[in-house]
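As described in the Methods, two query proteins were run sequentially through the folding procedure within a single session, without resetting any intermediate state between them. The first query and its resulting structure tokens are shown here.
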Amino acid sequence: MFWLLATLAYLLGSLSFAILLSRLFGTGDPRAQGSGNPGATNMLRVAGKKLAILTLLGDLLKGLLPVLVAHLCGLDIQQQAWVGLAAVLGHLYPIYFRFRGGKGVATAAGMLLGLYPPAALLAICAWLLTFYLTRTSSLAALIATPLTLPLLAWQQPGALLPMTVLTGLIVWRHRGNLRDLFAGRERHF
């Protein structure tokens, strides 16, 4: 059951709502505009608030649903976290879009919401506060994701290893943003 759910989670995660919505509404491929990232932040830049919100909701749900299904199927918290990570991997490296995906932040938030809502709330609050203070989405993501690890280590230690891997992947996917942050060139809202 675990491997089946992980495979299905990856396939679900590979659905890029930014690309699908941009095709549906004729706004152009977000990978060729703005930051080049098919995620909610870039959709806000290139396609407007409505499509950004729809992208955010779609990306959140594709992280949340696999974890909830894994829970309903009786998988333990660590297996649920690995299934959720498979969905995030699908978002990062989508099989349907030549493995050119987003940065995984919203999908990771959905995964975390399914695993342990207090950690998701912590991440969302940290993201919002950082974004409010800096107007920089990438910095908000790079701060919010690692902040969940101590709470998970304390309350849900079974989810810690998959979430640590997830944190590493999110930092890796933001490596260009890190370079731009250190050079003072990162995009702000």
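Immediately afterward, the second query was submitted; its sequence and tokens are:
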Amino acid sequence: MKTLAAASLSKQVQYKLLSGSIIPRPIAWMTTLSADQQTVNLAPFSFFTGLSNQLPLLSVAILRHNNQQKDTAANLLANEEAVIHMVSRDLVVPMNQSAATLDATVSEVQTLDLPTVASDSVRVPGLVAAKIRLESTLYQYVPITGPDGEIMTDLFVLQVQTFHFADEVLDSEHLYVNATALDPIARLSGPTYAPLGTSFKLVRPR
């Protein structure tokens, strides 16, 4: 095996190794509202996972670029609301396009001509095309600081208030999510993504 000491690697290489090792990762495609609630921001984040079986909690780590906070992080801190959409294969192109750097006053939703729908429990609208929408509110904010004390990552814990599922994705009787019908896309490293592959079942030991 090749052994690399983290301290001997640049930040870029450390990130490349992490993002290439922690795979596949789901993508949180998030809408938020600007502080004045005039602009709907849309951006994808793949440092994203569930956190608890006691509350419907999710974590999204929003990395800073050149010590600058991203619009989504600023909006979350200002309004404490977001809608997270799961990315299915048919949404890959607009998801990728929404990662472009735009002025904070420019809406990716309008730029990409993505229809939205009013939410039930938050002011942030959701995307009509998404098969799963999770209306969420801020539960906890954790600024992650580096050795110099500067914030390098904005970590958000969000609590889902309302779940929305396309009819074909949710088994209404048993409340199972049909992963095949969702056809999710996962992030690998760099510009590489992957669809759902062959699945199998294992019974956990008691």
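The CA atoms of residues 140 and 157 lie 5 Å apart. We note this only descriptively and draw no conclusion about the first query from it.
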